[in-house]
């Protein structure tokens, strides 16, 4: 039943993503002379991907009654606002030059367009679900005088390729020689025009999207990706060998000694963890927060795995508009039951009493900061009149998903966790009073241990991080999901191994407060990712302005926080398995 339910959920999600991408129901087959609609999407500064505006916010030629295209949830979340464009690109009909419109730009419109050209504004359109881009103009600088000349392109050429009755590829070209000077603040008469050329190609319709993924699959990029994986694998092998040495030498000797009644207690360094068997399973402080972290982290881990599964089966092909955002919202809502079940059952195992409060805490632990961040950033987007500002209807839809899907599943999961009646499995009895922790050197304190724990997993993924950032916060395309999935698995393994090793060293010096330490050490990779965000923003990108900076650091903080919860859960689960194993292997008095 569980497998059937999971399969049904995946099938529904794939269908939802596909419908979200092709809401118009088009079969993409045309006859000669058929009208194929061209939709204008947005304009914005090239280096600020979040700062985009509606196409007609700039004084372009517009049809008499432009209609907005109906969009899916993910498309709206992605900032897409498709609207009819005035260009007529009928199937297989060439056009040398056609006047679009004549108008006289006012001083205010000239100033607005000049500012757009200075900021490298680009436009994005969609033709038969194929994306196309172009720049509005260019800025020529006079090296001798140091003056800048602003030119606005007034002619666009569409180069379209077709195979039989299907459109395969479209490119747009702007001619710098056909431009108008908008340097001075004065009224400028302008005549916009366009031309169309159709060419036949042998590329099949099924492969028309491969053009957009070729850049990430080029040999030089693949070499870097494989180098990243080899680097990560070497890290894993070294850690595995290191841990195997510990387990096979140190622990094996301990087990042999502790299995005899006349065990020797002279070697304190090797046998230190045996002395604290009465304290090692003492429940941590702040049980409700601890259980909420484990519940939320488990949900985010399940979310990541489901997203990777959808990516591997080909749902997130390039420019499948909004599919990723739709999947994130839907899967997060459906996996909230996992958070409720895990948090409540573990909270009751820790002998917690107020499970309802813990369930509410779990539901707000990740959603709360994300909601507050969204409210702030949406207010900023509204102030800028950007397309990133969500319409009121979309906000209502998200609230309904949260109220009708996320919350009920969270409660159902909590009730299931309460009724599971699972007791905490502790191989050793806990003493009434805690044992005093000896004085330890500074490098064994929490922060240095977190620094060591986060560095190794981060070093295994940092090469891949650049390509992910360049895709999310730039205009590059990332399609090698198989490599990314391998790197993700390596990240999970390295995090688990490093946390287990640090937990062993902590127990070896008779420090029994390992519960919170394992979560903090496991999740510390999220802090390293945040520091990488700061480095990327200042050193590897050209982003600027209050809105773009707010969006970058606002949402990346939430992502890093999510990684902290997810990897912290992985670190704790691995440490708990390890601690149970070693104490189950000895005789506890």
UniProtKB/TrEMBL annotation:
Assigned keywords, A-Z: Endosome, Membrane, Signal, Transmembrane, Transmembrane helix
Query: Might you report a single GO cellular component term?
Result: endosome membrane
**One Pfam family of this chain:** EMP70
Q: Which InterPro entries match?
A: EMP70
Tell me where the transmembrane regions lie. Answer: 224-247, 289-317, 323-348, 360-384, 390-412, 453-474, 480-502, 514-537, 552-579
Compartments in which it is found: Endosome membrane; Golgi apparatus membrane
Membrane topology recorded in Swiss-Prot or TrEMBL: Multi-pass membrane protein
The signal peptide annotation in the UniProt record is 1-23
- Superkingdom field: Eukaryota
- By its UniProt entry, which PROSITE patterns does this protein fall under? PROKAR_LIPOPROTEIN
Which family is this protein grouped under? Answer: Belongs to the nonaspanin (TM9SF) (TC 9.A.2) family.
Would you tell me the protein name for this molecule?
Answer: Transmembrane 9 superfamily member
